[in-house]
Structure formats: structure tokens, C-alpha cells
């Protein structure tokens, strides 16, 4: 038994139940009809569901009562049947439940089916938690819709790095090949870990002979490792920023590599996601001239109450959402050290203001609402707060990338503000899981906060 919110969440849920029969109550069709107007994601999905139902029903109008086979319309995805409510049902609901409510009418239909077919399990599938509680209180079986969840447990999410066991070189050193090229050392190894190593996954080992490398060829009998550029050293500083820990070093290797087109960075507040990304963006745009400009976009979901419409152009409307950008630019454009002052006493401040203007001229702030149909050429595209995006929105954004464009997704999946999105179904979780192991993409989960001792303590204990 499908509730309306499942169909409005995923129109293809009609084909996701394999061998099970699906029953759609008349009230569900009524609610779909009521929600089809508008340009929101929900309205689009309602219209898509109606079109799908029309397609299925018109394929076999004579068999609506007995059930329409789904094998044909679903192209083999589902082998069950679709049943529509063809009769008026007078099920007895408890007096406390008003029959005027759509949810209660759907529960009534479920009860009727349960009594009519006692030998078959009847399961109500709904995204509405309260409806599931009501159904269970009335002795009915109710479940959530799990198909779109990428992972049941976000602890299983790919972290992008792997600690090598202590006996790694003993078990993988047989027939080891090693060579140097462009200042990097390469190792070709064989052993039990090789089939599990993904391309662009970072591997590390502490001890007397520390190693930090990433996998260049993986998921086979042999794997190739390449040593990393050490961005924690001042000579490799990126726009004056050096890596403060191992994961930040991994992140900077991904951000600065011209062969990597897509990077996802996950991490708690204060781990340096935005700072590292902006530093590498400015270096590659202003110094190395690899990109024409930097484009920053983010989902405009307020944490508290909304403050109403904002005046001005698209850029001006987005400015209040870009406080994080301003904060990081202040760090990146800090004044020179006391001993470095040259020229007049005002040159530091003047120089700083001029640099800030130059930087800002190369950074464009865009709203997500106008992204459809665009193509970005030679741009450094930063998607901030990406945990608030749905998988569909994420796909829309990433497919904007044209030749020479690099896309960076930043987020913290424990800070989701969008209703109906969970850690398991967020677009950021989806994209990390689906894109892992790709030849031109990489992911790092940043572990350690580097903002301040107060921020670290607050993140830990509050």
C-alpha cells in the first residue's frame, strides 16, 4: 500500500518493489492531483507520477480490477502487479480518527485489505512517521521507503583514506617495483589488499618509515602507489596556507592536481574545508591561470526564521549567505608579518585593499535557482553546504561542468537543514558513494578541527 508522499518523493517507487503487488488507494490519486501545481520538486514529482500511472493503466485498462502486470512498463524491474482502488470501502476506524483526513482514509483502506485478505501480508509504505505510528497502533504493518537511501549507516561511508597495517611491506613487498618520475616515487605492489584499493584513495602509515601515498591503479591483482606532495611544508604553501594535519594534506593534493576534476570534502565545523578550497582556487586562478574564475554557490536554507526577501541583484541577494566566504578571505588576505613591511606605513593596508578587490573581481556568487541549462568553461566551481542538496539537485549541478572545469563539493552531513533529507539520503552522501574509485575524482573526510580550542571543545561536548 503506497502513501502519496512515497510517490512524490520518488515517482519510480512504483517499480522498486520487485515481486510484490502494489496497491494505490483513491485518496493517494486525489492528493497527487492536489499537489501537481507549481514549480517545486514535489509538484514535479507529482506530475511525473501521474504520467507514469497513466502510461501503466492505459497499457491494460481491462485488468485494473485484477491487477496490471508491471513487468512490461517497468522493463523487467518489477514482476508484481499494480492494483487501483476500484470500489468504495467502508472500513470501521476508531472514533478518535476523523475520516476527513487523507492519512486516515488510506489507513482505513489498509485495514480493509488486511481483513479481506488475511493470508497475505499487507504493508503500508509511507515517509510519514506519525502515520506509521498510527498504523502500528491499529495492528497494521507499516514501513518507511528505503530504496533511495545510499547507506543505512553513515559510519560505512567511504572516507577516502586507509591506514595501512604494520606488516604491509612484509605481505605486499614480494616482487615490489619502484621508480621515480617528476620528483614523485611510485610503487607497484601485489598482495591481499590490492583488490580493495580504489583509484585516488589515500594510504598512509606512521612509524620509523612514514608513508603518505595515493593509489593510481587499483581494484586488481596489483596496485600502483604514488607519493604525495607535502603541503604541510612551507615551500609548498598554497596562497600562504599549509596543511596542519594528514587529511588536510590529502585534500590539498586533490585540490591542486590538474588531473582531478571532482573533489568532495566532508568534515565537522572548523576542519578547514572552505579555507583549503579557497586557497587552492585563488592559487590556480590568479597565479597559475588554470581557471578563468571562481564560482561559489550554496543552498539557501536558513538555520532560524527566514528574514524575508532580500534587495538587489542576484549577487547582492546571495551576499548574506556568503559570510563564510568573507571570513575565509580575511584569513587568506592577512597583512604581512611585522618584519616584512616595505615602503610607506600605509602600503600594507593599501596593498591589502587592492588585493581584496582583485580577488573579489574573480569570485562570482551564483544562486542554485538559475543553474539549469548552463555550461561552465574553465571555472573552479565550489558547491558549499552540499549536504542540503537532494541527489537530483546534485546531479543537475555537477553536470554543468564543461571542459577545464573543476567541481568541489563541501559539506558536513551531520548538519542537514533541509526537511525530508537524512544523512543516508543526502545528495552529498549519494555523490561520495557513487563517484568513489573514479579516475578523475577524489574524496577526503577531514577529521581534526583546526579552528580554535573553543570550537573543538564545543563540537565535541555540545
Describe this structure in words.
There is one protein chain. With 462 residues, the chain is an alpha/beta fold. 32% of the residues lie in helices and 18% in strands. It contains 14 helices and 17 strands. Strands 6-9-10-11-8-7 form a 6-stranded mixed sheet, covered by helices on one side. Strand 10 (211-217) and strand 11 form a beta hairpin. The longest helix has 19 residues, at 41-59. The model is unreliable at 338-346 (pLDDT under 50).
Observed structural traits:
six-stranded parallel β-sheet; 18% strand; Rossmann fold; six-stranded mixed β-sheet; globular; 462 residues; alpha/beta
How many individual β-strands? 17
Rg from Cα: 27 Å
**Portion in helices:** 25-40%
Residue stretches low in confidence (pLDDT < 50, at least 5 long) are: 338-346
How many distinct helices?
Answer: 14
- The CATH top-level class label of the largest domain: Alpha Beta
Please list the strands of the largest sheet in the order they lie side by side.
6-9-10-11-8-7
- The chain-level mean pLDDT equals 87
Distance linking N and C termini: 41 Å
- Tell me the major beta sheet: 6 strands, mixed
* Tertiary shape: globular
Explain briefly what this protein structure is:
With 462 residues, this protein is α/β, with parallel strands linked by helices.
